[in-house]
């Protein structure tokens, strides 16, 4: 691939190199790589299920250790609310009250989410404000039919001359209505953090936001800061970062040639949430909790969420303590065969890593090096929820290109559904990943891992998109909790579905976990 001087200048301005762009172009030629799932991770076989006593022990350990630790919550929050309101945009474009009623429209659409929206519209946290604005904008509002009023209300909710909800960052959409206020997802993350992340009265929360949205979040924080800090008796240290332009990826046309815009410039796109490994790598904390911006609950429903966050944190601390102890022992170089076998059994049992069949033939030195390599990695403990039909990556034991098997979070699109055996394993899965993850990013010597070294670059994903009406192929970096953490040590723990309350469509705000009455 020969780049012009102008191309090279454009590439370098993004912080990329020609060599990196050429590497990306080769991935388009390769196409998507399907993973080789060996079996679904299930309770007792890759997913730990703990008793009430064990849970309390992990919580007690977490609470005893955290006063001396630096804790952080990491919240991917760059998503816009557009997709949340997609069905409503279609409705405002298509529905004509003069050509039929809303019931006919809903029957044609067969959209259960849209039907729930209209059945519960008056219970939405922004309904009263939208009604007030609609009456101001449309003087004849109260004289209109119910169907016409609903159309005007939805337009008032969505568009710029009203509440402009669909153009807000998802984190700043009002999610919950209390007696004295409405609360955004952003605000609810602060309330939740105060319950399990506060150390000496301070909670640290980091949000990754889109360019142009940082000031919106900062303004929201300034508006609610006094109230939230008083209610939680917690000071919040809020930080923000953007997706780094150097994580953008080149787009190509159908011939895998660089896609160019109307001015002839190479077109780059954001590399997907996997690019946030860069943002995560820039954080400094002993434990980092990762949770998506839309996965929040009302205050009175925080009980399970907080308990299981602490449990996952306690599980990580206990594991980390044992791993660090073993690494310290291995570093001495004087370990008996019995000790080396004990460590190998720990790796198999606690980390679900299959030890090579050749292990027993290794010399003591070879065993030591092998075990060190397996243990000396970033560590994550991931909550797993029983699958009730929600979309999300699933937990599987996966064989990589070297033949090693490890626990991974895999998206459906990564699985070859034309392969009967792979499809059967997929259908046997019982749990999915609600993005409830706690991370340990320091090694046993207190040095921070470079997380870039633990990404499986083969897990980049090619998706079909359009630009200016023209088709293109986009390259998404390995997903943050998929290929982006492929070479971490991974542990899966069952958590109840009550800890998972995402808002994918606006109608999800009508579920009990988002309703105060």
Give the CA-CA distance, first to last residue: 61 Å
Structural class: alpha/beta
- Main beta sheet: 10 strands, mixed
Helix percentage: 25-40%
Question: What value does the Rg take, in angstroms?
Answer: 25 Å
Number of helices: 15
Mean pLDDT across the residues is 93
Overall strand count: 19
| Unreliable spans | none
The coarse overall form would be: globular
Strand content: 15-25%
Please give the structural blueprint.
Blueprint: H1 5-13, H2 18-30, E1 36-40, E2 42-43, E3 46-48, H3 52-65, E4 71-76, H4 86-94, H5 102-109, H6 112-119, H7 127-137, H8 146-158, E5 174-177, E6 182-184, H9 185-196, E7 202-208, H10 214-232, E8 235-241, E9 249-250, E10 268-269, H11 277-281, E11 287-291, H12 302-332, H13 337-351, H14 364-375, E12 379-386, E13 394-399, E14 405-410, H15 420-427, E15 431-432, E16 436-440, E17 461-467, E18 470-476, E19 489-494
Parallel strand pairs: 2-3, 3-19, 4-7, 4-11, 7-8, 12-19
Antiparallel strand pairs: 1-13, 5-6, 9-10, 11-16, 12-15, 12-16, 13-14, 17-18
Helix pairs in contact: 3-12, 4-8, 7-8, 9-10, 12-14, 13-14
């Amino acid at each position: 691939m020969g780049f012009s001087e102008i191309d090279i200048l454009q590439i370098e301005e993004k912080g990329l190199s020609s060599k990196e762009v050429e590497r990306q172009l080769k991935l388009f030629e390769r196409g998507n790589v399907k993973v080789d799932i060996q079996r679904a991770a299930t309770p007792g076989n890759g997913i730990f299920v703990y008793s009430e006593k064990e849970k309390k022990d992990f919580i007690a350990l977490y609470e005893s250790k955290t006063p001396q630790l630096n804790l952080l919550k990491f919240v991917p929050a760059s998503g816009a609310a557009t997709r949340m309101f997609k069905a409503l945009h279609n409705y405002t474009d298509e529905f004509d009250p003069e050509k039929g009623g809303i019931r006919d429209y809903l029957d044609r659409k067969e959209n259960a989410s849209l039907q729930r929206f209209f059945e519960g519209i008056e219970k939405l946290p922004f309904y009263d404000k939208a009604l007030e604005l609609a009456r101001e904008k449309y003087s004849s509002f109260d004289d209109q039919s119910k169907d016409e009023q609903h159309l005007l209300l939805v337009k008032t909710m969505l568009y710029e001359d009203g509440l402009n909800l669909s153009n807000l960052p998802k984190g700043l959409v009002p999610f919950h209505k209390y007696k004295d206020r409405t609360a955004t997802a952003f605000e609810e993350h602060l309330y939740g953090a105060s319950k399990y992340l506060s150390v000496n009265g301070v909670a640290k929360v980091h949000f990754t936001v889109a360019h142009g949205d940082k000031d919106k979040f900062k303004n929201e924080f300034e508006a609610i800061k006094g109230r939230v800090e008083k209610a939680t008796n917690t000071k919040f240290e809020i930080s923000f970062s953007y997706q780094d332009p150097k994580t953008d990826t080149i787009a190509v046309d159908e011939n895998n040639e660089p896609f160019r815009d109307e001015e002839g410039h190479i077109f780059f796109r954001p590399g997907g949430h996997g690019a946030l490994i860069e943002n995560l790598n820039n954080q400094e904390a002993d434990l980092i909790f990762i949770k998506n911006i839309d996965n929040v609950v009302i205050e009175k429903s925080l009980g399970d969420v907080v308990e299981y966050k602490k449990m996952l944190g306690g599980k990580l601390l206990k594991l980390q303590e044992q791993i660090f102890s073993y690494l310290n022992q291995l570093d001495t170089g004087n370990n008996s065969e019995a000790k080396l076998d004990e460590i190998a059994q720990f790796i198999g049992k606690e980390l679900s890593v299959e030890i090579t069949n050749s292990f027993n033939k290794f010399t003591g030195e070879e065993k030591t090096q092998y075990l060190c390599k397996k243990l000396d990695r970033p560590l994550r403990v991931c909550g797993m929820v029983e699958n009730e039909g929600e979309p999300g990556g699933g937990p599987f034991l996966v064989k990589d290109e070297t033949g090693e098997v490890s626990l991974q979070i895999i998206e459906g699109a990564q699985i070859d559904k034309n392969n009967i055996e792979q499809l059967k394993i997929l259908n046997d899965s019982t749990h999915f990943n609600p993005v409830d993850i706690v991370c340990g990013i320091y090694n046993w010597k207190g040095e921070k891992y470079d997380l870039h070294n633990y990404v499986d670059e083969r897990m980049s994903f090619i998706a079909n998109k359009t630009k200016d009406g023209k088709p293109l192929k986009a390259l998404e970096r390995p997903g943050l909790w998929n290929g982006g953490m492929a070479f971490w040590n991974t542990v899966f723990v069952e958590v109840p579905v009550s800890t998972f309350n995402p808002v994918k469509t606006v109608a999800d705000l009508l579920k009990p976990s988002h309703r105060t009455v």
